[in-house]
Design brief:
There is one protein chain. With 261 residues, the chain is of the alpha/beta class. The chain has a single domain, classed as Stationary-phase Survival Protein Sure Homolog, Chain: A. It is built from seven helices and eleven strands. A nine-stranded mixed beta sheet has the order 3-4-2-1-5-6-7-11-8, sandwiched between helices. A two-stranded antiparallel sheet has the order 9-10. Strand 3 and strand 4 form a beta hairpin. Its cofactor is a divalent metal cation. Its EC number is 3.1.3.5. Pfam families: SurE. This is 5'-nucleotidase SurE.
C-alpha cells in the first residue's frame, strides 16, 4: 500500500510524526509512506488552494517533501508532482494538535487535506487529537492517537463505506482528550455544534501605532448535542464522522422548491 500523509501544523509538527508511525504500520513492510506537508503552519486555512500564486516544493529526504502551501495544496502536489499523476492508495491528514470537531470542521486545514483527496478520488481520513487538562499532564499529549490510531484506520479500511459517488465519503476521526488508557471505545457520531462558541477578533496596537487583529477562539470543552462528535469525545470515546464535500442542505430542497414555485 502506498500512503500519502499531510497535515496543517507543518512539516516539523509532532503530530505528523505520530501519523507517520500509524501510516507505516498500515502500509506494512512492502508498502510506502510519502510525506508532503506544509513548510509552515497552516492551521485554519480550511480547504483553500493557492490558486493565484505559485508554491515552492522542496525534497527534504526520502519520500519527504515540504510545500509552501495549504494541506489541500500538498495533496495536489503529492498526486500531480511527486507521484507524477499517480494515485496513492490512501491519504491520511493529521494528527492535528487540537480537535477538529463541531464547527471547527469548517475551518480546519486537516479536514481540507482529506477533503481534497476525496475530491481526487482517493480514500482519505483526517485524524485529530483533542487536547485538555488530562493531555496537558501527559509526557506525550498524542498518547491516545498513537495508541489507538492504527486500529481505527484499519477498521475504517476494512469496514468503512468507501462509495464511488462524485462527492466521495471521507472520514473525520477525533481522539478524546485523555490518555491512551482512558479511551473507552469508538462511537460513530454526527458533526456537532457548540452553541455560544464563536471565533472573533482581539485588537492590539503595535509600537508604531498600527492596529492589528488577532483571531480568537471560543471554549473548546463545551459539549455538543448528545451523541455528536464533541459530546462523545468529552465522554472519553473516539469520534468517527463520515463526511462529504457536498454542502447542499438536502433536507431543505423540496420545501424551498415548493415555496419558490
Amino acid at each position: 500500500m502506498r500512503i500519502l500523509i499531510t497535515n496543517d501544523d507543518g512539516i516539523n509538527a509532532p503530530g505528523l510524526e505520530v501519523l507517520h508511525e500509524i501510516a507505516t504500520e498500515i502500509a506494512g513492510p512492502s508498502g510506502e509512506v510519502w510525506t508532503v506537508a506544509p513548510a509552515f503552519e497552516q492551521s485554519g486555512v480550511g480547504h483553500c488552494i493557492s490558486y493565484t500564486h505559485p508554491m515552492m516544493i522542496a525534497k527534504l529526504g526520502p519520500r519527504r517533501y515540504a510545500a509552501e502551501g495549504s494541506p489541500a495544496d500538498c495533496v495536489l502536489a503529492g498526486i500531480y508532482d511527486v507521484f507524477q499523476g499517480g494515485r496513492p492508495d490512501l491519504v491520511l491528514s493529521g494528527v492535528n494538535r487540537g480537535n477538529n470537531a463541531g464547527e471547527n470542521v469548517l475551518y480546519s486545514g486537516t479536514i481540507g487535506g482529506a477533503m481534497e483527496a476525496a475530491l481526487q478520488g482517493v480514500p482519505a481520513i483526517a485524524l485529530s487529537q483533542f487536547m485538555g487538562p488530562a493531555t496537558n499532564e501527559l509526557e506525550d499529549p498524542f498518547e491516545a492517537a498513537r495508541a489507538h490510531g492504527t486500529k481505527v484506520v484499519r477498521d475504517l479500511l476494512d469496514k468503512g463505506l468507501w462509495d464511488p459517488h462524485d462527492y466521495r465519503v471521507f472520514y473525520n476521526v477525533n481522539f478524546p482528550p485523555v490518555g491512551a488508557a482512558g479511551v473507552k471505545g469508538t462511537r460513530i457520531a454526527a458533526q456537532g455544534y457548540r452553541r455560544e462558541t464563536f471565533f472573533g477578533v482581539e485588537p492590539h496596537i503595535s509600537p508604531s501605532g498600527r492596529k492589528f487583529l488577532w483571531i480568537t477562539g471560543g471554549p473548546q470543552h463545551e459539549p455538543t448535542a448528545p451523541g455528536t462528535d464533541v459530546a462523545v469525545n468529552l465522554e472519553g470515546y473516539i469520534a468517527i464522522t463520515p463526511m462529504r464535500a457536498d454542502l447542499t442542505a438536502h433536507d431543505r430542497l423540496a420545501e424551498l422548491e415548493a415555496r419558490m414555485a
